[in-house]
């Protein structure tokens, strides 16, 4: 019999867990559920998978688009929005940076303050 598994959270490593958690808290409108000196958990208001942040002193931001022999991204977040231009402007106002390379017209690639790429797309 297979044991029960349930994905509770996705953890993003960064230099400052509290600073990055604050960015996503403001961007997504989520609340802090748990907080420790080097770790923060945000809870999804509809009960979905949470998002956590862990401080790692040796953190190196990924390069995107990927280039050989440089730090590769290991994951990225896809965030559904109802207005792409408005959501991009809001994310930038919160501290995101628009990626120079944009592979699709209906998706916006941005970097969070720790350098993780994330995508905004229309639902």
UniProtKB/TrEMBL annotation:
Gene3D superfamilies named in the record: 2,3-Dihydroxybiphenyl 1,2-Dioxygenase, domain 1
PROSITE patterns in alphabetical order: VOC (PS51819)
InterPro entries: Glyas_Bleomycin-R_OHBP_Dase (IPR029068), Glyoxalase_6 (IPR041581), VOC_core (IPR037523)
Pfam families membership: Glyoxalase_6 (PF18029)
Domain VOC: 6-123
Superkingdom classification of source: Bacteria
Name of the protein in question: VOC family protein
Species assigned in the record: Streptomyces sirii
